[in-house]
Amino acid sequence: MMQGKIGVTSENLFPIIKKFLYSDHDIFLREIVSNAVDATQKLKTLGSVGQYKGNTENLQVTVSIDKEAQTLTVSDNGIGLTSEEMDKYLNQIAFSGATEFLDKYKDDANAIIGHFGLGFYSSFMVSSKVEVVSLSHKEGSTPVKWSCSGSPEYAIEDAIREEVGTDVIMHINEESKEFLEEARIQTLLDKYCKFLPVQIAFGEKTEWKEGKEVATGETNVINDTNPAWTKKPADLKEEDYSKFYRQLYPMGDDPMFHIHLNVDYPFNLTGVLYFPRLKNNVEIQKNKIQLYCNQVFVTDHVEGIVPEFLTLLHGVIDSPDIPLNVSRSYLQSDSNVKKISSHITKKVADRLHEIFKNEREDFEAKWDDLKIFIEYGMLSEEKFYERAMKFFLLKNTDGKAFTWEEYENLIKENQTDKENKMVYLYATDKTEQYSFIEAAKAKGYDVLLMDDMLATPMLNQLEQKFPEKRFVRVDSNVADRLIEKENENKEELSADQKMVLSPIFEAVTPSEQGNFMIDFEDLGESAQPMVITQNEFMRRMKDMSAMQPGMNMYGDMPDSYNLVVNIAHPLVKQVFEQKDTTLGSDLDHFASDIQSKKTEIESLNKLKEGKKEEEVPQEEKDKMTALNGELSTLESSRREKLQSFGKDSDLAKQMVDLALLANNMLKGKALNDFVQRSVDLIK
User: Fold this and answer.
1) What's the angle, vertex CA 45, arms to CA 39 and CA 51, rounded to 5?
2) How many CB atoms lie within 10 A of CB 605?
3) In terms of residue numbers, what domain contains 476?
4) What is the pTM of this model?
5) Residue 431 placed within a domain
6) Domain containing 667 — which CATH number?
7) 541-574 pLDDT per residue, tens
8) CA dist., res. 618 & res. 621, Å (int)
9) Residues 321, 336: contact at Cβ < 8 Å?
10) Exposed, middle or buried: residue 664 (CB in 10 Å: 0-12, 13-18, 19+)?
11) Rounded distance between C-alpha atoms, residue 287 and residue 283, angstroms
């Protein structure tokens, strides 16, 4: 028997492994199984070059549990170890500068294991004792056993083993009994070893018979040794890609299409990425791409390897240029990783463009599922934006799709305003904004449908890229004013007339739903009597505030609306006539008295011209103050009279409620009152 101490410059190795790596303790199985796979592949390589004469046809790694002995064993029939090799590979750990490094990365298991090649020693995270029994492939070798109980002391002694290969026997400690449960080990093997290039066996296959699960006697091989991404695209059919997707995501919806990555210069990269159907306004899962290193699972958190927007894709990336034990600090600084990220972005954009060019009809049919992904990419990656403009689509309310260039050609003649800016009209809800869409179409305008969760930031970006164009929501103004043309001859009210008429309609607007500004326009007799619109800028800022916490100042502001009264409509004119009939003499008196006060104030202001404030007599100042007070009182009294008239006018209420109803803003008691009033008016 040989005894000794493991060659480390720091005796903190085992406490670090057992304590600081504990949060990632399940990676031990990946490490031990990966070592076993390496051993079998090395033996196969030796056999292929004639340096090993034994059988290399049935190479396999077997994982087994012995609950009675409290052990978990990983066995292989690979290259094996001599006692000298055990001493070299298991005992002489290069550990220079260990203390500083362990302190820096004590919470990052992958960094420590990857830095020092400690894959085998991760077994001590779950073991009170580890034994390695091995028989080397070399002629004349005898079986040997290495054992260690989690301290620098070890022992190497003779053992019994008839076949070439190695057993790693882990005596599971009290804190890690979960790793003696078949279900737990099956889960870990499915996670880490599903596509390893050598068969991984664990227990027996089972089947249901007479209401219970029974063993079949057939070895349970848990992995596919030759998954789709390891094959050439020319050797695969669509059904092969679909089958592989089912292996990855048994419960997922069918993807739309895929990209097969196969790069060997300037770095090695293979993989298959799938485009999932992204539903609008749902939480997006970003851990669906699995990263492998030579078919060994590394992680499903690939944010450092692929751009943020590509984490929406599903599938597999495999690259030997990314270490198995990859740390976040490594991903942030490694040049290979950055090249891989850039290349994947280009491949995805090229693939989308290829589908668009060759299968445009199919691409358009899938656009509603694709657009969130593409818009996310355009918003977050400048290079992707540049490529994506070739296949980015705008879809109108009739369901027709256009490229950016095609749509510009469609609208430039009719939708260019008097400042020579092209105006892109859009709706966010075809049902709620139906009347506005129809009014815009009646003027010959086309209306886009932008109803996804990224629509607002997307149109903001497009306006920044194309300052000569602007996006206007179809309900942000009346149809005549959505695209400002040269002035047309239409009836207009003076400021004084608007001041008199505004209180009538202010009195019947629902203040609890926001602030309503009253305006008067000649929209023509055939247009609606009243239209409610919302300012484009303020509404867009509120939309952005919902997505960006830093913009709360807009989100906290009350909604602001414009109530546009159509002065050309017969019903509006009828309200004006009723106002004259009911309040005519009172309004005349108010007008006369108000004008008299204004004339006096104007005369006093003329007396003040050319004088400094201290040169104006106090008597004139006092009179000015009194006149302004009297004018304010008169105007307030007139306003109260007009508001009282408005509240009593069923016709005014009915027209305002109709406008609210058209905007889906009439609910609860107000809706019930509207219905009852409608019945009364019909009688």
Assistant:
1) 105
2) 10
3) 392-482
4) 0.70
5) yes
6) 1.20.120
7) 766 666 555 545 444 567 788 899 999 899 999 9
8) 5
9) yes
10) exposed
11) 12
